Automatic annotation (TrEMBL):
It is a multi-pass membrane protein. This is LrgB family protein. The keyword Repeat does not apply. Coiled coil: none annotated. The lineage of its organism: Bacteria, Pseudomonadati, Pseudomonadota, Alphaproteobacteria, Hyphomicrobiales. It comes from the Bacteria. The chain crosses the membrane at residues 12-32, 44-63, 75-92, 104-127, 163-183, 216-240.
């Protein structure tokens, strides 16, 4: 038997096991972390982006469709919930500062969430996007599970929103810290609020790499922005459209 035929049979055997997709996901992320560490944790070497690129390339090479992949990788998806809850720990350590800054945090979150949704919709409208695309764009800065529900309620396409959320998070985590530095924003709490509001969980993961304080405020912003957007965006959308 030739080597390519043997490899094909081996892959067919491995693809039948759900552990293969899970293993692929974990290895891809570890590869992304390894590359990111070798790059000095540069924002341009985002481990999530690298892992996604590695997985996409592997799925294309092996001809594996997303549904088959997700059947095995859904355990990682399940862990998103506990991981999100775990963000409460660094936030608890900063609870006194959060109390002192409650008004500033509230104003920042509402303003940031509104600007994120409005600019996405405005850019989409400028390029002639239809109503379903605009509704898919509006919640793109909110964590994926909430954003997909909002998009569905607004008449958008949840699957498209999931992709937009991922792209938004990767761009925000990659370029957000650099942009804030160029703008002279040095306070870790302010940086965390901005990153968490704009780039949800992926941005929060990046903020946690920089400092506990920045990560705590990013996690706070991610959660509250999801809540505020889920409550307010459908109301505002109904008034405008």
């Amino acid at each position: 038997m030739s080597a390519p035929a043997s490899l094909t049979e081996l892959w067919v055997y491995l693809a039948a096991s759900p552990l293969t997709a899970l293993t692929m996901t974990l290895i891809a992320y570890q590869c992304g972390m390894w590359i990111s560490a070798r790059a000095g944790f540069s924002p341009l070497a985002n481990p999530v982006l690298l892992a996604v690129l590695l997985l996409v390339g592997l799925l294309l090479v092996t001809g594996t469709d997303y549904r088959t992949y997700f059947e095995g990788a859904q355990f990682v998806h399940f862990l998103l919930g506990p991981a999100t809850v775990a963000l409460a720990l660094p936030l608890y350590r900063q609870i006194e500062r959060v109390r002192r800054s409650a008004l500033a945090i509230t104003v920042s979150l509402l303003t940031g969430g509104a600007v994120a949704a409005a600019t996405a919709v405005a850019i989409g409208a400028f390029f002639g996007a239809g109503p379903d695309i605009l509704a898919s764009l509006a919640p793109k800065s909110v964590t994926a599970a909430v954003a997909m529900g909002i998009a569905d309620k607004l008449g958008g396409l949840p699957s498209l929103t999931a992709v937009l959320v991922m792209i938004t998070g990767v761009i925000g985590a990659t370029l957000g810290p650099l942009l804030l530095t160029l703008l002279g924003v040095r306070d870790p709490a302010s940086r965390g609020l901005a990153i968490g509001t704009a780039a949800h969980g992926i941005g929060t993961a990046r903020a946690l790499q920089m400092s506990d304080l920045e990560g705590a405020f990013a996690g706070l912003a991610m959660g509250l922005n999801a809540l505020a957007t889920a409550l307010l965006l459908p109301l505002v959308w109904g008034w405008i459209f």
